[in-house]
């Protein structure tokens, strides 16, 4: 198959001359409460406990790549994937037969003064798809589990990887990334029994681990949970690029007791399968019984979840990617239970202005749970398509951004 050029890789090529940065800023703009502007078809009741986000103006930027999802290990360090860019002089591009995904160690406790080290890349052929990207990444018990998923761009449509392929599986490292053991799965034979190549809509397409804190210390049952965006059934009025790396209709949930034996074995997983008559969640080892636990047609996309232990709240962050090349909307939901119901904290229209891959690293949540740092990247089409989206909030761009936020109205616990 002829290798396609990834839009994010194209952006990276334009940025290649830009040095890897690790700089911070304080007071770029005054404290700002981001207005919540949900669309008329809003699917969520407003939260009465966390009523919005205020950006303090403190922010930091690192590297020259995207797809950062840091996992907090027992040794106190963060370990994260990344791709389509350059970090510490190491290049990664996720397109074509020679696709690679990056990994790195992050040192430090102050988000404004972190050090990225031990940077490397790992190959992964995406065939029969065109690209292969990082997904769920977790360090537990000294083992780093690193997952990837598949994408394809419809030729000539410029929809930016509009076909979401299956999640492939997990490779693992027992020495924090110095050496790796590859997954036994391939894009053509993935971990979960998703549809064959282009045959249907995937559900667990881009799973991310729920961030339960250092070495998963706050997991309610010792299990690792994966939250993912996907779709099912016929969409009566699908939007352009309706199921892509950044767009979807539904959110799914799975769980597994993490170990080298189980993480790459579909039979070890349980999938959320709806609720019983009393409203309690049902779990099934049968993937065929999986059900979305949140649905919002044409409004969902890349999803992450973090447990804010001091507040005893699950914070879910969803990016609605629109057409996958325009401005993006990012919204935050909260719940006291991992399966919901979730309520709306804020719907941030045009955040970034094209922000994506957003998550709250648990390491940077304050002791009272009321302050956190939002992690994301932004504005990749400024290089790929020549757009001129603003850095809004300041500090946003095609790198790893951390923005300090206050959780408004959050009660003391």
What does this structure look like?
It is a single chain. The chain has 413 residues and is mainly beta. It has a single domain, classed as Tachylectin-2, Chain A (5 Propeller), CATH 2.115.10. Helices cover 3% and strands 40% of the residues. It contains two helices and 25 strands. The strands form five sheets. Strands 1, 2, 3, 23, 24 and 25 form a six-stranded antiparallel β-sheet that branches. Strands 4, 5, 6, 7, 8 and 9 form a six-stranded antiparallel β-sheet that branches. Strands 13, 14, 15, 16, 17 and 18 form a six-stranded antiparallel β-sheet that branches. A hairpin with a 4-residue loop joins strand 19 and strand 20. It starts with 6 loop residues before the first helix and ends in a 5-residue tail after the last strand. 54% of the residues are buried.
């Amino acid at each position: 198959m002829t290798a396609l050029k990834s839009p994010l890789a194209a952006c990276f090529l334009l940025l290649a001359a830009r040095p890897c940065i690790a700089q911070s800023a304080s007071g770029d703009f005054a404290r700002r409460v981001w207005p919540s502007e949900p669309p008329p078809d809003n699917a969520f009741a407003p939260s009465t406990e966390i009523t919005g986000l205020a950006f303090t103006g403190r922010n930091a930027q690192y590297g020259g790549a995207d797809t950062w999802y840091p996992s907090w290990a027992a040794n106190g360090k963060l370990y994260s994937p990344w791709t389509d860019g350059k970090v510490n002089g190491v290049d990664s591009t996720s397109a074509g037969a020679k696709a690679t995904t990056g990994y790195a160690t992050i040192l430090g406790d102050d988000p404004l003064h972190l050090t990225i080290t031990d940077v490397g890349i790992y190959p992964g052929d995406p065939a029969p798809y065109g690209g292969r990207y990082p997904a769920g990444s977790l360090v537990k018990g000294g083992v780093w589990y690193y997952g990837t998923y598949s994408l394809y761009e419809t030729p000539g449509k410029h929809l930016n990887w509009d076909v979401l392929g299956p999640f492939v599986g997990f490779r693992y490292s027992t020495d924090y990334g110095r050496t790796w053991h590859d997954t036994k799965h391939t894009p053509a034979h993935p971990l979960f029994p998703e549809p064959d190549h282009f045959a249907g809509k995937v559900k667990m397409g881009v799973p991310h681990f729920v961030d339960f804190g250092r070495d998963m210390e706050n997991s309610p049952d010792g299990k690792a949970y994966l939250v993912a965006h996907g779709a099912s059934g016929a969409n009566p009025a699908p939007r352009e690029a309706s199921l892509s790396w950044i767009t979807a209709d539904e959110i799914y949930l799975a769980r597994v007791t993490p170990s080298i034996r189980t993480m790459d074995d579909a039979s070890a997983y349980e999938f959320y399968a709806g609720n019983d008559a009393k409203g309690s969640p049902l779990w099934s080892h049968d993937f065929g019984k999986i059900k979305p636990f949140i649905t919002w047609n044409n409004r969902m996309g890349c999803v992450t979840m973090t447990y804010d232990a001091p507040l005893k709240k699950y914070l879910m962050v969803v990016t609605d990617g629109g057409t996958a090349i325009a401005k993006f909307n990012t919204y935050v939901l909260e719940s006291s239970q991992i399966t919901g119901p979730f309520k709306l904290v804020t719907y941030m229209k045009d955040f970034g202005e094209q922000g994506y891959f957003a998550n709250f690293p648990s390491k940077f949540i304050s002791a009272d749970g009321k302050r956190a740092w939002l992690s994301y990247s932004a504005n990749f089409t400024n290089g790929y398509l020549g757009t001129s989206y603003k850095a809004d909030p300041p500090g946003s761009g095609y790198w790893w951004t951390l923005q300090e936020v206050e959780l408004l109205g959050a009660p003391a616990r």
